[in-house]
Each structure stands twice: as C-alpha cells, then as structure tokens.
Design goal:
Elements (H helix, E strand, L loop, with lengths): L1 H25 L6 H10 L1 H15 L6 E8 L10 E5 L10 H12 L5 E5 L9 H11 L7 E4 L2 H5 L2 H8 L5 E2 L3 E4 L6 E4 L8 H15 L11 E4 L5 H7 L4 E4 L8 E2 L2 E2 L9 E5 L2 E5 L16 E8 L1
Parallel strand pairs: 1-14, 2-3, 3-4, 4-5, 7-8, 8-9, 9-13
Antiparallel strand pairs: 2-14, 6-7, 10-11, 12-13
Length: about 300
C-alpha cells in the first residue's frame, strides 16, 4: 500500500496539478473544444496509472510464470534430457520473504529439473540472508544434480563475505570465478564474478577477463559441454566468444514494465529473453523479485532449459 500511495502522490503532482493549472489558464482564453476534450481526458490518466500500479503491485509481481525451452547441445548428445532450471534476482527483503523463497523453490522443483541455477541477487538482506542460506541448503534434496549459485552485485552490497562463509557450510555449489563438472555427467557449469567497472572500455576488458577466469579449469575441447552462469547479461558476448553454447544471466528484471512482450525502457544491451550470437545462445532472465514492487507486462519467471541433441 505504501508504494501505491507513493505513485498516487506522483500522479497527482505531475498530472493532476498541471492539468488544474492549465485549466485555470485556459479560463481566460476563448474555448477550444479540442483542448477542452484533452483536459477532460487528462482526469482519467491518474486513475489509469493507479489502476495499473495496483495491478502490478497486488497481482502480477506475485505470479511466477513458468517457461520451458529446448536447447541444442550438438557436440554433447550424451547430455540430452538433462534439464536445468533457472531463478534470478529474488532480492530478499520487504517484498520477498524467506517463506516466499521456500515456496518458490518448491514451485521450481515441481517440474523435476535435474539442476537449479541461481544467477545472483538472491541474498539482499542482512537479516534474512542467514535463514535464506538454510532454506537453499534444505532445497538441495529437491534437485538430483544440485543447486549452483553465481554472485550478483547485490550480494556484494550486503556483506558477501558473511554470506559466503554460511554458504560454504552447505551443499550448494558456489560458482564464483570457477567451474565444476556436474557429478555423473559431462556437463560443466561455470560462474563468472560480477564486473563493477564503470567506463565501457574497462567493463568490456574486465568481463572478458572474469569469463576466462571462470572457465580456466575446463579443458578447451569441453567448452562445448558448458553452461556459463553470469549475473550481467553482456557476459553472453564473452561466453559466445569462447564457444560456450549457453549462457544464463539476469540482472535486468526484464525491465519490469512491458507491452506485448517488449520492455518499455530498454536500458540494457540485452534486457530479456533469448540472445543468439552465431550458433551460441544466451538467456536474460526476467527475475523473481523486484526493484520497485510493481510489474506490468513482465511477470516474474521460472525458466527451464532441457538439453537436446
């Protein structure tokens, strides 16, 4: 309700007040029917805005949509049938509780994926993080091949060292600048660290270096058997450059506002869904939590990737 009131205030400040001032000005000017119709219609804008925000706050942001994809691994036919589920950007806090996380993990597991990949910005609350670590560890039993986690920027903001120490006592696979082969398979999962470089040139160089660091233990001829996990979507470029067939990312929340599947504010190079570079693929997850607690045309999602030959 707090955020609904905030948006209502902004709607009044920036739409109603200007409309009233404009109407007072036009009282001293001969009537223009088109202008009158505009001013009459302007009264509907705040109502539409509040209605949209209420829908996005009370309904859509709480509806976890499941999406299913088949992904070809042409050089690794033995991996056919293996399914990786992805969640991202949970953002524990006021709008996503530890109980919500437990329910989300159970919802993901209901479709029986082999692996769960978590691509950062889960641990975003100093008070909730310890309990969330425990919930994540308990959920390992729901995924036969394990849970694999890579870091986002918000873990760094929320005392990552403390959360890392807790995670190291669990069965969760922590992929921060490293890779592991999934037990009983020929599949590698690698996790890149987050780049905090500020200018474009430094960012390009740093993310390339962080990607190489993440896969340094993978034999070159096995990069075609690898899934790269990275929080920032532009790591898709670096994964493709190394010959990695699939890179899973998040960070953008899909923009949180969209029309007909397209983001209203495309603030990133890649903002949601599939990216294809040659024959290599990347996926930008829409996130499971929110920055501001409103989603319209961009519901939170659970993505499933079934490997096929």
């Amino acid at each position: 309700m707090f955020w609904v009131l905030v948006v209502l205030f902004l709607a009044i400040l920036f739409i109603v007040v200007p409309a009233v001032v404009t109407s007072l000005i036009y009282r001293r000017i001969p009537v223009d029917k088109n202008k009158r119709r505009f001013l009459q219609g302007a009264a509907l804008y705040p109502a539409a805005m509040v209605g949209g925000v209420s829908y996005g706050y009370y309904y859509e942001r709480r509806q976890q949509v499941k999406r299913y994809y088949d992904v070809k691994f042409p050089e690794a036919p033995e991996l056919a049938g293996l399914t990786v589920a992805q969640i991202s950007d949970v953002h524990l806090g006021r709008f996503f509780s530890v109980d919500d996380l437990r329910q989300l993990l159970q919802l993901v597991a209901a479709d029986k994926p082999n692996i769960l990949a978590v691509t950062g910005d889960l641990f975003d609350n100093l008070q909730m993080n310890p309990a969330a670590v425990q919930v994540l560890d308990e959920a390992v039993d729901l995924f036969p091949k394990g849970i694999y986690f890579c870091i986002g920027n918000h873990e760094t903001y929320r005392n990552w060292g403390r959360t890392l120490a807790l995670l190291q006592k669990t069965r969760v696979h922590i992929l921060v600048g490293r890779a592991e082969k999934v037990p009983g398979t020929n599949l590698w999962l690698a996790g890149a660290e987050y780049s905090f470089a500020r200018d474009d040139e430094s960012f390009m160089a740093e993310k390339a270096a962080l990607t190489r660091k993440a896969v340094r233990d993978i034999p070159e001829d096995e990069l075609s058997h690898t899934i790269l996990l990275a929080h920032h979507p532009e790591f898709i470029d670096d994964g493709a450059a190394l010959g990695i067939p699939l890179t899973l990312t998040g960070h953008t929340h899909g923009g949180q506002l969209g029309i007909l599947g397209f983001p209203v504010i495309p603030a990133y190079k890649y903002i949601r869904g599939w990216v294809k570079i040659g024959d290599k693929l990347g996926y930008v997850h829409c996130g499971n939590g929110s920055w501001l607690p409103v989603r319209v045309g961009c519901p939170p999602e659970i993505a499933y990737f079934r490997l096929v030959n």
